[in-house]
Amino acid sequence: MSGMKRRGLIDIYADILNAIDDGACRTRIVYKANLNFSRCKQYIRDLAKGGLIKVQTNSPSTWAVTDRGYELLKKHRELKGFLSR
Fold it and tell me: Kind and range of the H or E element at 75?
């Protein structure tokens, strides 16, 4: 585990939003964002409650990033760029 950095909550949210992009089911999100299913379910609920993602289709649910979610991604990238200077 040495050398591995733990991700903060905002980084996890950004990874989920990047995984969803123009639409994804929970399984795809779990694998692309490197999460387990139970944590992913909670994070999806939090992101939906915050208006950052929305249900695109039901049964099975696929998710889409909202304009607000894309705004968070943009700010996250700006902050990462700012910190890496």
Answer: helix 67-83
